[in-house]
Design goal:
Blueprint (H helix, E strand, L loop, with lengths): L9 H11 L3 E3 L21 E3 L4 H13 L4 E4 L16 E4 L6 E5 L4 E4 L5 H9 L3 E2 L12 H7 L6 H4 L6 E7 L5 E3 L13 H5 L8 E8 L1 E2 L3 E9 L2 H13 L6 E6 H7 L16 E9 L2 H15 L8 E2 L3 H19 L4 E7 L5 H15 L2 E7 L4 E7 L5 H21 L18 H4 L2 H14 L17
Parallel strand pairs: 2-4, 3-4
Antiparallel strand pairs: 1-2, 5-6, 6-10, 7-11, 8-9, 8-10, 12-14, 12-15, 13-14, 13-17, 16-18, 17-18
Helix pairs in contact: 7-11, 8-10, 11-12
The structure holds flavin-adenine dinucleotide (FAD).
The site of flavin-adenine dinucleotide has 38 residues, from strand 3, helix 4, strand 10 and helix 10.
């Protein structure tokens, strides 16, 4: 670790207090909230939590930390699933929660400028009031921050039609680890000017810079949605049906897969859960269409129904009211949390080209059987993105700690063979680092390390994330 400081002296605290007043927490005032995120059961307490309210304050904090070799971990809402916001080296936790203002909704240009600490759904609702749409909607949209979405390049159900966070970002204001403030691009929808620093920062998991302002593009908000739930008697057939929908020329605005167990475990966690699970249901597809013309959408809906007849399905449920639609989406959004409350778990975020989805599902189940663990699968099937929740259940501690990493390695190797990669939207953070060699060669990893070195020569910003083995 060289001379990097994981603890913070009285002198440092005094500096932060002079800068931020009571927006500095240390000792007992650092609550458990700042020691964990939503990744398994990790707990790492930072030495101090600082809560800037402006870019200038972020800059002053980073400059001071750089001069005094203090480790800094940027933190959003702490809903991350790969441990990116964990202060695994102690040091300073820089929470963006007080930078929570939407600065401008530009209706002329269909753009919004926001600070990073705005909750994603709050941003979506604010632009919706102007008839505008910001589509990326991680299932955590009611609690995660837009800055965290940028850092993770988050997806969500609507990515299948509208793309992920990166597809909506025009420009970012960032603060470099040395404290310098800069914009990465321009507020334009076309930009062929030099290297694309905006896209480099997106998905960099708080390891290159701290994002302090975000300019997003918007589109008119669709006025209609249709939602259907299709029960399949075989999960692999549900996966086969996914690419058939696209091959018929239809692009749904949501196409989600849920294993039987995913629904079974989630129903008790949802008030007034819809009664949808029958004994012979192995998996469900939740399919949403959106648009402006209901007649056109109904035609697509009929085409989907015809396609589904090729498969062994039970009766399709069409949501008849907004309340029923919300109830089905609520069930889907709760799956991750519900399944994880069932047992000690590990979550993987596999992604393959969507035609390969049936092979991915079969591989997960086969590897689970070989190693003796239960794997509950759900996720964004339209993107080929399957979340695999591995439950410890009655597995021995020995098998969990020693055999499971081998099983995960086998799964990821299979994923890469299928043309996919090891994280679709949750990022690498702390937990997936040991597997990066499966996705990337040494030359690719060295190039990424060199980029990190240019942005952060002292390796003080969020160290111990993304890169395997050596901490840079
Ligand atoms: C129930 C549940 C459902 C979820 N569903 C989805 C889903 O559908 N799709 C999806 O993609 N993800 C999903 N997630 C994962 C998570 O919500 C996203 O990764 C989200 O973007 C994290 O945002 P956050 O504000 O909580 O970030 P945090 O967890 O606080 O931080 C995540 C990373 O971003 C960095 N960071 C945060 N803010 C900044 C900033 N301003 N500048 C630089 N770096 C920063 C941190 O250092 C860390 O590396 C889900 C999580 C939960 C708990």
């Amino acid at each position: 670790m060289n001379n990097k400081q994981t603890t913070v002296s009285e002198e440092h605290l005094l500096y932060f207090q002079q800068l931020l007043g009571n927006r500095v927490h240390t000792g007992e005032a650092v609550t458990a909230h700042y020691a964990s995120d939503h990744t398994e059961d990790f707990v790492f307490y930072p030495a101090v939590v600082v809560k800037p309210e402006s870019t200038e304050e972020v800059s002053a904090i980073l400059r001071y930390c750089y001069e005094h070799d203090l480790i800094v971990t940027p933190s959003g809402a702490r809903t991350g699933l790969s441990g990116g916001a964990l202060a695994n080296h102690g040091g300073v936790l820089l929470s963006l929660e007080r930078m929570n203002r939407i600065l401008e909704i530009d209706e002329h240009n269909h753009q919004v400028t926001t600070e990073p600490g705005v909750i994603t759904e709050v941003l979506q609702q604010a632009v919706r009031e102007k008839g505008l749409f910001y589509p990326p909607d991680p299932a955590s949209k009611g609690s995660c921050f837009i800055g965290g979405n940028i850092a993770e390049n988050s997806g969500g159900p609507k990515a299948v039609k509208y793309g992920v966070t990166k597809d909506w970002v025009l420009n970012l204001e960032i603060v470099l680890p040395t404290g310098e403030i800069m914009w990465t691009g321009a507020n334009v929808i076309k930009n062929a000017t030099g290297y694309n620093l905006t896209q480099l920062v997106i998905g960099s998991e708080g390891t290159l810079a701290v994002v302090t302002k975000i300019v997003l593009r918007l589109i008119p908000h669709p006025t209609q949605t249709l939602l259907m739930l299709v029960p399949f008697r075989q999960g692999t057939q549900a996966c086969e049906a996914v690419s058939k929908i696209f091959m018929a020329g239809i692009i749904p605005s949501g196409l989600e897969y849920m294993d039987r167990d995913a629904i079974l475990y989630t129903i008790p966690h949802v008030d007034d859960a819809p009664d949808i699970l029958k004994d012979d249901h192995d998996a469900h597809l939740l399919i949403e269409l959106d648009g402006f013309n209901l007649d056109v959408m109904m035609l697509d809906c009929e085409k989907i129904m015809e396609l589904m007849e090729q498969f062994d399905i039970d009766e399709i449920l069409f949501a008849e009211s907004e309340a029923q639609k919300e109830s089905l989406w609520k069930l889907r959004r709760k799956v991750g949390e519900a399944v994880k409350s069932h047992s000690i778990y590990k979550e993987e975020d596999t992604v393959v080209p969507r035609f390969q989805l049936p092979q991915l599902l079969s591989a997960v189940k086969r590897i689970g059987k070989a190693y003796g663990f239960q794997a509950v699968c759900y996720g964004h099937a339209g993107d080929g993105n399957l979340h695999v929740n591995i439950l410890k259940g009655t597995l021995s501690d020995e098998a969990w700690h020693n055999q499971l990493p081998k099983a995960i390695r086998e799964l990821f190797t299979e994923v890469v063979k299928l043309g996919g990669t090891i994280s679709g939207e949750h990022g690498i953070g702390l937990v997936q680092r040991p597997f990066m060699d499966i996705a990337f060669s040494d030359i690719q990893l060295d190039l990424m390390r060199s980029i990190k070195q240019v942005f952060d020569p002292k390796g003080l910003l969020n160290p111990g994330k993304i890169f395997p083995d050596k901490v840079i």
